[in-house]
Every structure is written in structure tokens, then in C-alpha cells.
Specification:
CATH class of chain A: Mainly Beta
Protein name (chains A, B): Flavin reductase family protein
Number of helices of chain A: 5
Strand content of chain A: 35-45%
Family (chains A, B): Belongs to the flavoredoxin family.
Pfam families (chains A, B): Flavin_Reduct (PF01613)
Largest sheet of chain A: 8 strands, antiparallel
Distance between the termini of chain A: 35 Å
Number of domains of chain A: 1
Radius of gyration of chain A: 16 Å
GO molecular function (chains A, B): oxidoreductase activity
Number of strands of chain A: 12
EC number (chains A, B): 1.5.1.-
Structural class of chain A: alpha+beta
Oligomer: homodimer
Helix content of chain A: 10-25%
CATH topology of chain A: Pnp Oxidase, Chain A
């Protein structure tokens, strides 16, 4: 599998990768256990602090790992990882070690104990900052505390889930920068 | 501009269009005024009720229209509407009538007073169901009460914002349905 040479990336700029709406892999750690889940229901909520909201229910084995550790990593898989993305979403961490099963590499993060998935394009280390919406909405509020992104390619080819087993694959990027007011960029 | 022959669409299935993360146009109505804003920070939060969460700040002229009326319509523009999407995001409803300025057609909705944008691929009529997260997170909780979607094309070509004036244009859709457990589709 392809790997990337990643650098520290400004956390307030991660909307570049999350706002287009890719499916992501969420890695977590609690006690001696790592897990990974596939997640499609997330949104950017603020630039600084770099806030993300995401929907994860207690039906996911990762739910308790993230709730108890108050940490996770959001990893951006590229389209070539589609079999891993689907596989990870169709088995449970209660039964398998997903890093082992899918031959993915757990790399140590800097600010959280949850591991980075080395084979993913980018990794965003997150702290859970608010669990008060879990009961009503299964909604975690996260803050990205460190981001790892490669210098190249600037934009990854990502998977965007439509439900029913269908993914949209991201297409080309086009700039309309000259049509924006500077304060709106 | 292209228009679509739309039909009633099951509200619990709108994730097909929103989960991939397109930029959307939000139309609103309050007293004798209609407005439109461009929005990129939103997520599906539940199938049934068909729940959406979205980030809209009071810096947007639409904020008060949506807050007071407790309604809006989420419209999905296709990539050919990129100039309208950028233009709408770079002027204010406090100064211009955006329907008039961008030659868009306000069609009556069925269950809300906010208008549908006829030229958009799909229209989701929404009620605001929870405003308790506005103060802390500028986050509206919406319920889709009626959805209008054309029979064809099945998947629209959409715009996905990366910030900095750059849009990703959605690419092809591929099915991995056979690799899913039925309960996970």
C-alpha cells in the first residue's frame, strides 16, 4: 500500500480535506486496545479552535473507546483503500483486530494515545471536548489538536459515501478564487 | 438554466445526496422576504426522523430569517451553477434580492414558507427542531419534512468546497454493494 511523507499542517486549515465530505476512518485506543471505524456523518464546525462534530452511535464498538479515552484520530483514506474502508465498516472491533486484519500500520500520534493510520493520506489527532450531545444526538464535539498531511499531492482522491454500497469518487479541483471577496476565502 | 422534473422522495433516504458533502444553497423566508445562502458545513445526523445538523452564524443575513421562521430549504446545486453558488456566497441578502440578482426561480414549497430553488437538482424542505446549540456552536438541528428529487440523473454532479476559492467536482459513482453486510447498507 502507498504511504505518504507527512508534515505538520495548520489545524485551522483542515476544512480543505473535511469540508468536501469524504468518508473517514476513525482510530481509537483504550487500555490495550486499538480500533478503527468507518464514518461518513461529520462536519467542520469552527476554524479555531479546529472543531469537528461527528455522529457515532453506541452500536459502534469504537463508541466506548472514544467516550472513555476522550480521544480519537480522524484519518483520510484515498480511493485506492476502498476495500479496506468497506471491510472496516463491515466487521466489529469486538471480534477482530482491524489493524491486523486489514494490514494497516498503527503509528504513534503526538498528542493522543489513539494511533495514526500510516496508509491514510492525512491524520487529524482529536480530543473530545463535549459529550453533552451524545444522549440526544449521538454527536461528539471534537477539537483537532494536531494534523499530519503530505506536501504532495495537494488534494487527495477521496471516497464519498451515498449509502446502499455506493461511493462517489472525488473529481478534479477548480479554483474560483478571483470571484471571491478576500474576507470570504 | 437547466431545470428538473422532480418527484416526492423518501426523506429517510436523502443521505444519498447530502452524505457525499456537497455545497448547498439554503433558502429562507421571513415576513415578505426571501433569501439564499451558500453552506458547506452540514452533516446527516439520523435517517428517521430525517435529521440534519448545520453551522450557520449570525454573520449570515439568513441566520435571523431561519431562526425566526424556524424553517428553511436545503437545495442541491449542480456544478453548472458554480457562478451562482460563488456569487450567492459573496453578497448579502441585506443588500440584494438574490433570487432576482442570480435569475433563480422561487417555487412554493409544500410544508414550509421558505421557497424551493427551481434550478437546483434537489430540494429538501426543513423545519428547525432545536435551537439550543446556536449560542455555543451556531449549530441548527433540522428535520427534513419533504424532499423533491428528479428521477434522472440518479446522481447529480455536485460542488464540494475546499476553502480558498477551490471546489472539488464530484466524480463517478461506484457500487461495492456486494461487499456489504445487508444490515450495513
Amino acid at each position: 500500500m502507498k504511504t505518504y511523507r507527512k508534515k505538520n499542517f495548520p489545524v485551522e486549515m483542515i476544512r480543505r480535506y473535511l469540508e468536501p465530505g469524504p468518508i473517514v476512518l476513525v482510530s481509537s485506543h483504550w487500555k490495550n486496545e486499538n480500533n478503527i471505524m468507518t464514518m461518513g456523518w461529520h462536519t467542520v464546525m469552527e476554524f479555531s479552535p479546529s472543531r469537528i462534530g461527528c455522529f457515532i452511535t453506541s452500536a459502534n464498538y469504537s463508541f466506548e473507546l472514544i467516550r472513555k479515552s476522550r480521544e480519537c484520530v480522524i484519518n483520510i483514506p484515498t480511493a485506492d483503500l476502498v476495500n479496506e474502508v468497506v471491510g472496516i465498516g463491515n466487521c466489529s472491533g469486538s471480534e477482530v483486530d482491524k489493524f491486523q486484519k486489514f494490514k494497516l500500520t498503527a503509528e504513534p500520534a503526538d498528542k493522543v494515545k489513539a494511533p495514526l493510520i500510516k496508509e491514510c493520506y492525512a491524520n487529524f489527532e482529536c480530543k473530545v471536548t463535549d459529550t453533552s450531545l451524545l444522549r440526544k444526538y449521538s454527536f461528539f464535539i471534537l477539537e483537532v489538536v494536531k494534523a499530519h498531511v503530505p506536501g504532495s499531492p495537494k488534494y487527495p482522491t477521496t471516497l464519498h459515501y451515498r449509502g446502499d454500497g455506493v461511493f462517489m469518487i472525488s473529481g478534479k479541483s477548480v479554483s474560483y478564487r478571483r470571484k471571491f471577496k478576500p474576507e470570504n476565502l
